[in-house]
Design brief:
The structure is a single chain. This protein is of the alpha+beta class and 73 residues long. The chain has 2 helices and 4 strands. The strands form 2 sheets. It has a two-stranded antiparallel sheet with strand order 1-4. A two-stranded antiparallel ribbon has the order 2-3.
Length: 73
C-alpha cells in the first residue's frame, strides 16, 4: 500500500524517509525513483510546504534474500 506524505516548509527527503521507514540506506533512492514523474529529485534538497510525496511499500531488509558470492568452488 502506498502512503503519502505532505511536506512542511523546510522538510528534506532524508529526514522524511528516516522518520517513516526507520532507515535511509537504499530507501531514499527507491522513493526518488517512485516519484520520478513529479521530478522530486529536481526540486532541490529542501522542499516547500504542501508537496505530496508518495512513499512506496518497502520491505524489511532483514527479510530480503541475501545474495551469496562464492570465491572458490
Amino acid at each position: 500500500m502506498i502512503r503519502t506524505y505532505t511536506t512542511k516548509a523546510g522538510d528534506v527527503l532524508d529526514a522524511i524517509v528516516a522518520e517513516v521507514y526507520g532507515r535511509t540506506d537504499g530507501v531514499v533512492e527507491k522513493v526518488l525513483e517512485h516519484n520520478r514523474p513529479m521530478s522530486l529529485a529536481d526540486r532541490g534538497p529542501i522542499y516547500p510546504a504542501g508537496l505530496v510525496i508518495e512513499l512506496p511499500e518497502i520491505g524489511d531488509p532483514a527479510q530480503q534474500p541475501v545474495k551469496l558470492i562464492r570465491l572458490w568452488e
